[in-house]
What does this fold into?
Amino acid sequence: MNAKTMIAESLAFPSADNSQPFRFRIVSDSEFEIFHDSARARHRLNHGNLASHLALGTLLESLRLVAANAGLGLKTKVTIPATTTTSGGEEPLERWARVEIAATGASASDADRELARALPLRVTDRRAYSRDPLSQADVRRLHQEASTQPALTFAFRDTLGRDAENLMLEIEEEQWKDLRAAADVFAWIRFNETKALETRDGMTWPSLALPRIQKPLLLLFQRVFPLYAFLVRFGATKGHRAMLKRQLRGTGGFGWIAVADADPETLVDAGRAYFRIWVYLCSRGHGFQPLSFATLPAFMKWRLSLPADWSAKLLSAYERLLPVLRAEAGFGPEVYPLWGFRTGHAPPFPAAARTLRKPVEELLIP
Ligand SMILES: Cc1cc2nc3c(=O)[nH]c(=O)nc-3n(C[C@H](O)[C@H](O)[C@H](O)COP(=O)(O)O)c2cc1C
It folds into this structure.
């Protein structure tokens, strides 16, 4: 398997809003470089490129699984420049990793083979799921997958405590009042098939699992954004709160991951293990949805910084979230909650709700 084929087979990796913020330069048949495209990654909620670091983890783990399944090993060097963590990245294209393909002679582990086969099944499912708890065997496996990355602390809970739920709902509602964040999300919604097929990125309308009657309104917001800004003042974000409440209450279990530091390598490794858990759960007929609003900007605030123009209400909510999530997940003071997800048994995922990926040819840089 050469570099181009390996990249092509790994492109189903998830990125925030399906922004697909990476480009590839093929050095030889057995070596390639991964570049971060800051223009595609620019997003209010990608402050400090945190979401991009996690997405790189999901990409590198996809590549590793594809390689392992083909009897190959990968030598990967993460080369994210230190400045991107605070500045958000100045260069339009920055080299973030170098990958060398090598024959290992060793066969892939059963877990790797199983996850490699399940890669096409992984999706983001925003519907309500069964509230039945996961089996003990599944929960054990999630812990095993989390332990593939020593920097990670993982907790899984069948339910969500009332304090955590209330704070997450408060944050959801408040976050959608941040007009730049809302505009950045709206820009990635692909309202019809023609647009989705043309761009092969972003979130298809069915993937959002929203009531059909909301479509004309959201489309209007995307086209005439000042209307959203106006309606926010009259409680438009209550709908986001209600939607999240339905999702949180239609859930069979919650996963929380925490790390001790915000080094890019740590975040990439966290993305790797989180991705393995994601693939595993989808392969077992479970829905999976990342819960990022409550945790990613909060993690930035606790460990690095958030821009000074974030609302005082949000900043205060993030401050209150730290002890609540630590108590929820049983994390000690030495680690900081980074990311969460909800899961639970779900009916088959509708094909129309799948998001698309750009073809490898479009992603190659000379
Ligand atoms: C770093 C990161 C953060 C994400 N945050 C959220 C989130 O908060 N809510 C959500 O519904 N999906 C979230 N997603 C899922 C993406 O929107 C999704 O992966 C993307 O649209 C591609 O769709 P797919 O996962 O079905 O392939 C996140 C994905 C990544 C990689």
